[in-house]
Structure formats: structure tokens, C-alpha cells
Amino acid sequence: MDSKAPYTETVEQAGELASLRRFLSIAEGAFSLGIAVCNSPALRDYLINQVQGSEPNLAVATLRDSTVDVFGKVKEQIGETSPSAIFVIGLEQATGSAPVRVRVLKSLNASRELWEQRFPCPVVFWMPAYVAAALAIHAPDFWRYRSHRFEFAPAPAGLKQAMLTEASGDLDLTVNLSVDEKQFRIAELEQRLAEVGDDASGAMAQHAAVWLNELGVLYREIGELDKAKATFRQALELNERLGRREGMASNYGNLGNVLYVRGDLDGAEEMYRKALDLDEKLGRREGMAKSYANLGNVMTARGDLDGAETMHRKALELNEQFGALAGKADGYRHLGIVMYARGDLDGADRMFREALALNEQLGRRQGMSGVYANLGNIMADHGDLDGAERMYRKGLEIAEHLGSREGMANLYGNLGLVMYERGDTDAACEMWTKARDLFEQMGAADDVHRAQALLDQVADSARPSSGGEA
């Protein structure tokens, strides 16, 4: 198994999320005050949405700029309902300017006893760190009511410390993070880049370029392809300014990956060939291997299986030369896909199982998810629908854990085909609708059309004939 541990920030914040869930469970039925410190509104909203998935009776109250009576506003929004817990967001908006901040917080301080009287459930205030500091000063009695504090803000180590640790951007580790850990890492990198600003220079500019590339990979992995593309472009511009050809090659390859998912094979090939050209000039065998593999995928998608095999064998040969086990795992899988497309199911099965063994050895969950999908396809072709479903669901479980919209969409599509073959059109349509919606979120137009075509086919077959009288 891969011995690498997740980034320090993701471990700490994942622990905080688990603590928050335990707090809501333990404090259920009685008032208890929690303070959740989070500097990123996007991360805050994501975490609240995650918690709501397991706490359907949780209520969220939102404060606005004009809010002075915080208790009154929350009471108004909750009404006569009896939620299991209440999250309060927007205190930073209600406390915008310094004079208003003092007035609002003093009002909150005066209401401290009313909360326990009205709300027999845990109440969690979400706020950025600077508001938490002001709350402790201007609402000391309310602050003392708190029983728990949760920190979802990156530790304030500063940019210099960040440059000394994790500056190289370990993308294998990044891809393998859980969906929650990915969101924490996104917030951490966004904060670093915000501190750097637009005028990065010297060593700081080089680190910013690495962080931008990793941030783009994270966006791509969770299916935020517009953000990924814009971030890779920003990294490319910075690397071009710095003359960092290695970074440029990586950015071109990652831009190609975004275009490939979106079905723009010509655009993807252009990016991959730019990356290959730079890596060949630099003698970067690892980069060359990735580019060969990416070009092989484009050729497979176009139906040029001979060209695809040539590219994948070049990539595999390079990965074997410098002992890149992850590259070998991907190479075996890619060759298996080519064999599958040719109808050589036995050869494909051998390649997929070689890939699975390596991915399991390395702990590469994303790779395992993809291979499970491939093995499911082979079982389905052999008529083993139960085996195919088992493989697809194993792959789906991993894809959901990783937050991979692309992986989830593909596996929902495959599960839909299994359901359809069994004659369960309702279940098939449910799976294809999930796949279509995920593809739509990613902007993968061709895949959206394919999923919709399957749904239309079922709808057409269920429509009564409009023929005339016999």
C-alpha cells in the first residue's frame, strides 16, 4: 500500500468534521453552542451540505447586512419548527463595519440566555477567524456559552512555512484524497494564492505556479472543469513568464485532460503534443510517458487502435525503464482498453488484472475504481450481469469517496445498462439520469447526449403506438 499520508491540513480538518458530526449527535435534544471557524464561504457551504446529507432535519439560518438582532432573525427563520440542529451563517455580513460589528455583537451578548430557552438543540455559528476574535471580545458572555469550537481554517503558518513544506505539489497524493479532503486542500491552496496575490515574483512565483497546477488538478478531479481550465491557464501564463518549461509541459497536459473529458479531441491532442514537445526537449521521461499515454487515449477515442497501442507501449516501456509503478498500472489498463475494443476479452482481462494488482499495491483508489469499471464491462459482455454489477458498485463506491464526478457518471451509466438488460427500465433510467446530470455539470456535451439518447430510447419504447385502425 502507498505509505504516503494526506496533507497535514486535510488530516486535521477531516478530524474537525468528524468532531462536528459527533457534537451534533451527542448534543441532540438539548441546547449547546458551537463555533465553526471557516475562512472560505465555498468550503463552508460544501461542509454544511455534507452534514445535511446525514442530518436532514438540520436548519440553516442566514444573516444579512441589515441584521442587528441576531437571535430575533434566527427565531424568525426557524419559526415553529423543531430542527435537530441549527447552523447560523452570515455573521460576517451582519458585522461588516467596525461600529456596526460592536453593536451587533453586544446585542448577541445580551441575548445569551434566550437561545437556551428557545432552542433545545445544538446551535453552530459559522464565521471567519476575524469574526470569531471579535466575538470573544465584544460578546464575552455569549462566547463563554460555547461548548465546542471547530477549526476549518488552514493553520496560519504563513507562506514561508508553506514554501518549506508541501511546496512540490504531490499530485499522486492529491488525486487520492477523499472528497472532503480535496475540499479542504482547495481552501488551503486558495488561501495561499490569495496571500501571494497577482504580483508574485522570484521564488514565491515558482511556488505559486506549483500551487496553481495542483489546484487545477483538484478542480478537475471533482468535475469543476471550468475552474480547472482557468486555473491551468493561469499557471501556464505564470510558468511562461518564469521560463519554467517543465511546468508549462505539465500545464499543457492538464489542459488536454480537461478538453479530453469535454470531448474536444482535437484540442486535447494539440495540448498533449505541446507537452510532449517540451518534455522531449527536456529529456523528461516521466512527462513523455504521460503524453504518449494521453495521445493513445485520444487515438482510442477516434478508433485508431493500432496508433493507440503504439503510443501506450511507448509509455509503458518508459515507465518500466525508470520503475514508475503508477505509470505501469495505467499502461496495463490502457492496453486492456485497446484489447477490449478489438474484442480480445481474455487479453483485456489479463491487462486489467495486472493494473488492479499494481493499483492495490500502491493504494491508488482512483486507478482501482477505473479498473473495476473495466472488469465489469468484460463480465457484462460474458453475460455475467451480477458480476458486472458487483464490479461497477465497487468502482462507484470509490468514485463517490474521491468525489470524482467523471468516474461516478461513467459507472452510473454502466449500472444503467445492467438494469436495462435485466428489464428494469425504471432503475436503468434512474442511473442514466444521474449520469446525464453529472456529465452536464462537467460540460461533457457528447456524454450528455449519449445518456439522454438512452433515456429517450426507453421513453419511445414505452409510448403507445399511434397507428390507425386495423
Kindly summarize this structure in a few lines.
The chain has 470 residues and is mostly helical.
CATH superfamily of one domain: P-loop containing nucleotide triphosphate hydrolases
Report the structural category: mainly alpha
Shape: globular
The count of strands amounts to 5
Count of helix runs: 24
**What is the CA–CA distance across the termini?**
69 Å
Q: Supply the CATH architecture of one domain.
A: 3-Layer(aba) Sandwich
CATH topology of one domain: Rossmann fold
Structure overview:
The protein is mainly α and 470 residues long. The protein has a domain at 8-151: P-loop containing nucleotide triphosphate hydrolases (Rossmann fold, 3-Layer(aba) Sandwich). The protein contains 24 helices and five strands. The protein has a five-stranded parallel sheet with strand order 2-3-4-1-5, with helices on both faces. Helix 3 links the parallel strand 2 (58-62) and strand 3 (85-89). The longest helix is centred in the middle third of the chain and has 20 residues, at 202-221. The chain is globular, with a radius of gyration of 26 Å. Mean pLDDT is 90; it is low at 159-168.
